[in-house]
Design goal:
Blueprint lengths: L2 H8 L30 E3 L3 E2 L2 E6 L6 H14 L15 E5 L4 H14 L4 H4 L3 E5 L9 E4 L2 E4 L1 H13 L4 E5 L12 H18 L2 E6 L18 H5 L2 E7 L2 H6 L10 E9 L8 E12 L5 E9 L12 H12 L13 H9 L6 H16 L3 E7 L5 E7 L18
Parallel strand pairs: 3-9, 3-10, 4-5, 4-8, 8-9
Antiparallel strand pairs: 1-2, 6-7, 10-11, 11-12, 12-13, 14-15
Helix pairs in contact: 2-3, 5-6, 9-10, 10-11
Length: 411
């Protein structure tokens, strides 16, 4: 080995310079909670600035009517829909993709009539566009190479939202806002993410009114039509369901009135606790006068004031009153008879025989009176010799003797 080579071998090579890391873990900087700004809620704990929310329900369940009520509540700053309007009146943009301006106006004017809202109350803060008037909305289209976003349209929407300082934008229905394959997760994720970007850039809340799939049953967040990525990308999801039989019985709602009620459920909300709540609403009919001078009925959704119905138990005092009314002729067995015993039971128990659910409970009480021996069924004949059935008093109820002179409840 040469001396030169030995010297070179003894000289250490320069260490390689490591490139700076592309990601650096940032230490958490302690922040007093009192210094953290509040979440920018707009409507209750459902609509939040910079995010996308959804209302999911089958067709005809009341999505548009609900959005109409929410919009007027936001614009006026009044919480008549049951949700707090944070920071006073808001600006709202309704963009409907299946109804005409005339039809949408019917719903708005009917709701305004119900809530005593005037044109001055809107103060120019409500905006309305309809696809039937040419205002179409196609944010994403499907292509063989993948979904293609309409970036220019998105920019124009952001510009319009910001220039009008709009706080909440409703898109109804969501399915008509794109041409993407609604069963493809990648395509639908692109649609909702683009809407989320619009909401973020414009610092507003976007609400999508979305249909359920065909085999919906009881609606929840998984009932939404199309790919699951739609619901996954939304910050909050409210569903609409009709009342079921158990709920109707719990709240003493007649079978004929059940169709007028709906239940809103907060199925998904990424910004509040896991505790979810349900709200009951009701369709009220409002008559509005049209250009021909006639009136039309329009359904308006309003909060329903429901109270849990407590099962009534007949007391001896009430049974005694029923027996007194039997002596006055309210003793017939058949429910179509003018002197049916059920009329006495209903009056005393404050039940309406014209309501199906009340009438069913009255019949149960009559059966209970029979089973306990307070009344007994007998067969008689009218003046024409036709047989009929009626009740006679069995065991006298206490305190029968002390109330025999009471004023008859059916007088």
């Amino acid at each position: 080995m040469s001396t030169a080579n030995t010297v070179i071998a003894l000289v250490p090579s320069a260490p390689a310079v490591a490139p700076p890391p592309s990601i650096i873990a940032a230490p958490y900087q302690w922040l007093d909670p009192s210094k953290i700004p509040p979440r920018p809620w707009l409507y209750g704990n459902q609509l939040l600035r910079g995010s996308v929310s959804m209302i999911v329900a089958p067709g005809g369940a009341g999505k548009t009517a609900l959005a109409t009520g929410m919009a007027l509540s936001l614009v006026t700053g009044r919480d008549f829909m049951g949700s707090k309007i944070w920071g006073g009146p808001k600006k709202v943009w309704l963009w409907n993709l299946e109804d005409s301006v005339e039809e949408l106006s019917r719903g708005l004017q009917a709701a305004a009539t119900y809530w005593s809202i005037s044109a001055d109350d809107l103060n120019g803060n409500l905006f309305l566009n309809s696809a039937l008037s040419g205002d179409h909305l196609k944010l994403v289209s499907s292509r063989s190479e993948g979904p293609r976003e309409n970036v220019e349209l998105a920019k124009d929407i952001v510009t319009e939202l910001k220039s009008n300082a709009i706080d909440v934008m409703f898109i109804d229905p969501f399915v008509s806002s794109h041409d993407a394959n609604e069963n493809d997760n990648k395509s639908m994720d692109a649609v909702v993410k683009l809407l989320a970007l619009i909401a973020y850039e414009a610092n507003c809340s976007i609400v999508l009114l979305h249909h359920t799939n065909k085999a919906f049953g009881q609606v929840n967040e998984n009932s939404a039509r199309g790919a699951s990525s739609v619901v996954a990308a939304a910050r909050s999801v409210v569903t609409i369901n009709p009342l079921n039989d158990a709920e109707a019985k719990l709240y003493d709602i007649d079978e004929d009135e059940m169709a007028s009620y709906i239940k809103l459920h907060d199925n998904k909300n990424n910004r509040i606790s896991a505790c979810r709540s349900s709200t009951y609403m009701k369709f009220e009919s409002v008559m509005i006068k049209t250009s021909d001078g006639n009136e039309e009925s329009v359904g308006v959704i309003v909060p329903a004031d429901l109270e849990i119905h407590e099962v009534q138990v007949l007391t001896e005092h009430q049974i005694a009153h029923i027996q007194l009314e039997m002596k006055e002729g309210f003793d017939r067995h058949y429910h179509t008879a003018g002197k049916w015993i059920g009329h006495a039971v209903g009056k005393i128990m404050k039940l309406d025989v014209k309501k199906k659910n009340h009438k069913a409970r009255i019949k149960d009480m009559i059966h209970e009176l029979e089973s306990d021996g307070y009344i007994q069924i007998v067969t008689g004949k009218d003046n024409g010799g036709k047989e009929y059935q009626s009740y006679v008093i069995g065991t006298k109820a206490k305190p029968f003797a002390t109330i025999k002179d009471d004023k008859h409840l059916l007088n």
